[in-house]
Structures are given as structure tokens and as C-alpha cells.
Amino acid sequence: MTITLQLLGGLDFVDADPAISVRARRHPMLLLALVATASPRAISREKIMAFLWPESDSARAGNSLRQALHGLRRTLGEDLFLPETAGGIQLDRRKVNVDLLTFRDAIAGGAPAEAVAAYRGPFLDGFQIGGAPEFCQWAEAQREQVEREYRAALDTLARQAESAGRHDEVVAWRRRLAAADPFSSRVALGLLKALTAAGDRPGALQHAAVHESLVRSHLELDPDPAIAEFVWSIRNTPPGGAHPRPTQLPAATAASDHALDVEELSGTAPKAIALLAPPSAIAPARKLTSARVRWLGGAAGAFALVGVGALGAKMTQRPTENFLVLASGSAAVGGRDPNNRLVACDGPLCPKGSLPQDAYVIPTHSAYTDPATGTHFIAPVADAASLKPPGYACCSTATYENQFALPADAVSATITVTVLADNQAIVAINGIEFGRQQDRLAPWNHGGPPTTFATTFLPDPSGVNRLRVTLWDGGGAAGLNYRALVTHDDGRETESRESEKK
Q: Nearest CA to 190 among 488, 240, 458, 176?
């Protein structure tokens, strides 16, 4: 029997018998990840013990390693590993297909398309292990290396398509590269040039606005002047003409002509963030600090009306083709929420069984007295809010994922998330964190006031976008409530405004 091990985008077996018990156990799975990543070389027992059991003495760590190896062999086959030598433990690749190794073989063989096809997400995405700093550092180094190789493969494919004059293909590869590296000005400029060469000047302006918004809100930096220069050349070049190079950007004109009109936020689609405007002309999008939130009931959960003090505008209901609402506890099937999957968990609050699994919806509890939200909290286990004091011991971290799709023509999107948590919530979209409640040791947040975060993001080229909300719980009761409004823009608004200017 040959099994397929997924290391990219998570840690799991692909299309394997769900009865495989080892997938529910963290250390054996991470041991398998270590051995598989080292292939075709062996990895020493000492290194494995230092990574996975750093706080144990050599005798206890050695016993834990033997138990983990025994569990793997018993479940997956005695011949899972090659005969052990002085070099350590080595995977038998005839028995296990590993997506990471397929990816690396394609990179080494000069097959970027095969490498991109094998890539399904960051290395060991969502997996954490407490008390093992060396393992975390190793995993992060592996993750960075894989992502560099993935981006290089995308760049190679884009250059090959460019040499062959396949402009639409260039745009497709450059879009995927921009989604993988959204803060890189070099990558953004490559996509702007590809879009312009393909005849999509409005799309280029739209992406320039999105890139600027991301850089300002996440990095708190001004965008690269090369982006502004290229945008200026697009705006001042007739279709088919050569792009001029400005001797000096007209900053005053840019601030007046292109600064964000906050009243546009209440239109039928989110508008582009300011192009070439000075930082003072743009309100920060990282955290909407003065927000009033009211949840309106509905079949799909709740719809948010947010009065945004920081921007001085109201976000009102959009036409159905331009927005969607994500929420915790919006559906309850057998006491669980199928829309919010628990994808990672670490600590005493974590459930039994393998991940991912549906979150539990917490019934009304004295700890959660707000009638508007009391039945919309989710937790890793069914009794997270009902155990008698002191409840669960400190500390647990649970990450929920809500997957959603946007229309194929969506070129940018904005997400606004409001959270209540016991104790702290962290929000991320497509792998990029954009909000974290302050001071996780502060008094419980489940009773309010809620915290609201917003950001602009690029739709994932795969078509599946991932909102992840992580709950940090300091013990006792636990619960997370969130509502998210996602609006998207297909570029037609940008194109319309450009036509009006002409």
C-alpha cells in the first residue's frame, strides 16, 4: 500500500483510510514530517528528540521516540522506513508519496509547472507545537524556503509565457505570484506591466490601488515610487502609445484627484484606495478603533452595519453580487458549525480526534449574557463554557477556518471582521494576519465591546479564500464570536471612472 503525505498546506494523509489513528496524534505526525522532509537523507534520533521533546531528558525522550515510531509502523506498515543505519531514520519513498518531495523534485528537474501544481499551501500550515522552539524555527525556515521556490517557479512560468507572447497567461501567473507575495513592489510592478501589455489598463490601476492599500495598512510604509511612476505613465499614455517617464510626480494634483472619497464606501462596490496620495490623505485600515456594531438576525446568521468613526462613513448593505457575510455559529448541525472548521489546536481545551473538524456551537451560558450573540459562540469542545469553575486549565490556542469563494472576475476584496473572544482573537485572510486584539491577558472580551479590523486583500487564485480566526484562551470558559463582511470589486467601477475621465 502506498500512502500520500501532505506537508504543503497542512499535515495530513491524502485520500487515506479515515481509520488511520496516527493522524490524530501530534508527535508521530510531526516525526513523520521531519523524516519525510529530510529525504533522501536520514535524520538522526538525537536531532528528532531535540526537536520534538526538548524538555525531556535523553531517557524519556528516547522512550517517546520509540513509542512514536512503533505507532507509525503499526498503523502505516513495518516497512515504512528503510533499515536504520548509523545515520538515523530514513523514509522509504516507495511506500510514501510526499507532496513536498514531489515539489522539490520538480524544482530540481526544471519543471516549474509541475512544482506549482504540487504546491497546495505553506509548509505545515496551521500546525503548532508548544515548548519546542527549535522545531518551530526549523519549520519556519522550511516554510520560507518552499515559498521562495514556489514564487521563483511562478516567475519562471510568467517569463516563459512572456517570451512566447501569451499575455493572458502572463497575467494569470503574475496574479498568482502577487497573491503569494502581496507586499513586494517588484512583483506588483510585474503584474501592472503584464496587465497593461494585455490591454487591461483599468485592471492595472485597480491592482496598483490594492497593492498600495496593503503596503500602507500592513507595513505602514509608503508604496515604492516605481509603482506611482508606472501608474502616472498609465494615466498619461493614450492606448497603444509609449509610456512616458515623468520628471516629477505632480504630488499636489495627485492628492486632490486621487485621494479616497470615504463616502464612496457606501456605493455598490468598494472603490480603489488612493493612488499617489500622501499618507495623510488615507485613513489607516489596520484597526477601526471607534466602531458601533449592531447585528441584524437572519437565516444565514447576521448582517453588520458598521458606523466607522475612523473613516467617517457608513458601510451599508450591498447588492448581493458584491458582498457576502461570514459568521461564527451561523449554522448548527448536531450542535456543530460546518462553516467553521477547527484546523489547528494546541492545549488542554483541544478536542479528541483528528483535525480538521467542525467547531462546536456553545449554547447560551451565564458567561455570555448578550442576547444578540449568546448563541453564536464557537469553541473546540462542546462543554467549553459549561464546566464548573475553574473550567479548563490554561492555555489553549484554537484556529478556525471559514472557506469562501468570490466571483471569478473579482480583482480585489475588502474584509471587515468584528470579534468577541474569551480571551483573545487573531484574524488572518489567505495567510496574512491583519488584526490582533491587544493584551491577551486582559479581562475577557466576550461581553464586549467588540473589536473591529479591516483590510483589503487579493482573492486567492485557487478560487478558495480562507478566513482564519484564532482564539487564545487563558483557561476557564472559552468562546469566540465573529462576524465578517466581505465586499469585492470586479474592476468595472475602476474602468467606468477611467472612461469618465477621458
A: 176
**What are the residue boundaries of the structural domains of the chain, listed by start?**
3-143, 165-245, 291-489
Contact present, 403 and 326 (Cβ < 8 Å): no
The CATH T-level fold of domain 3-143 is: Arc Repressor Mutant, subunit A (1.10.10)
Distance (Å, whole) CA 291 – CA 422? 20
Domain 291-489, CATH class in plain words:
mainly beta
Burial of 18: CB neighbours in 10 Å, binned 0-12, 13-18, 19+? exposed
Q: Which SS3 state, helix, strand or coil, does residue 397 take?
A: strand
pLDDT in tens, 155-173: 999 999 999 999 999 999 9
Measured distance CA(393)–CA(443) in Å, rounded? 16
Q: Which CATH class is domain 165-245?
A: mainly alpha
Residues 313, 131: Cα–Cα separation, whole Å: 45
Question: What percent of the chain is modeled with pLDDT above 90?
Answer: 33
b/e 97-136 (16+ beta carbons within 10 angstroms → b): ebbbbbbbebbeeeebebbbebbebbbbbbbbbeebeebe
Q: Cα-flanking dihedrals φ and ψ of residue 167, to 5°?
A: -65, -40
